[in-house]
């Protein structure tokens, strides 16, 4: 039973680290999103010169959205696993 409690400690640490990483990713995504909302009204010639970073920014945001979704799923599964292990330990420890 002692090894399961140690594993629960490691699993809780992993959940905390993944949750913190998820918060950092969401904050970074919001910072990118605020830059994307800036609108420039350019004619065709100015658009070719000045608006080159906008498609790159949108591509980066799309990649980040996929990473956030994957990290959110991993965090949720690990939290469910932690809760399940905790309940199992409490039920069979008595």
For the structure shown, list the relevant keywords.
mainly alpha, 94 residues
Please render the helix and strand layout as text.
Elements: H1 2-36, H2 44-50, H3 53-93
Please tell me about this protein's structure:
The chain has 94 residues and is mostly helical. It has one domain. The protein has helices spanning 2-36, 44-50, 53-93.
Low-confidence segments, ≥5 residues, pLDDT <50? none
Number of discrete helical segments:
3
- Domain count: 1
What is the helical fraction, as a range of percent? over 70%
Order of helices and strands: HHH
| Major sheet size, sense and barrel closure | none
Structural class by SSE content: mainly alpha
End-to-end separation in angstroms reads 12 Å
Fraction in beta strands: under 5%
The total strand number stands at 0
Any idea what the shape is?
A: rod-shaped
Alpha-carbon Rg, integer = 22 Å
Mean pLDDT: 83
Brief characterization of the structure:
The chain has 94 residues and is an all-alpha fold. It has three helices and no strands. The radius of gyration is 22 Å and the shape is rod-shaped.
């Amino acid at each position: 039973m002692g090894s399961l409690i140690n594993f629960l400690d490691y699993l809780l640490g992993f959940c905390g680290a993944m949750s913190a990483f998820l918060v950092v990713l969401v904050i970074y995504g919001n910072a990118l999103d605020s830059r994307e909302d800036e609108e420039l009204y350019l004619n065709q010639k100015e658009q070719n010169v000045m608006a080159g970073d906008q498609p790159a920014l949108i591509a980066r945001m799309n990649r980040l959205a996929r990473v956030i979704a994957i990290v959110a799923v991993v965090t949720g599964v690990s939290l469910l696993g932690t809760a399940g292990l905790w309940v199992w330990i409490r039920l069979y420890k008595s």
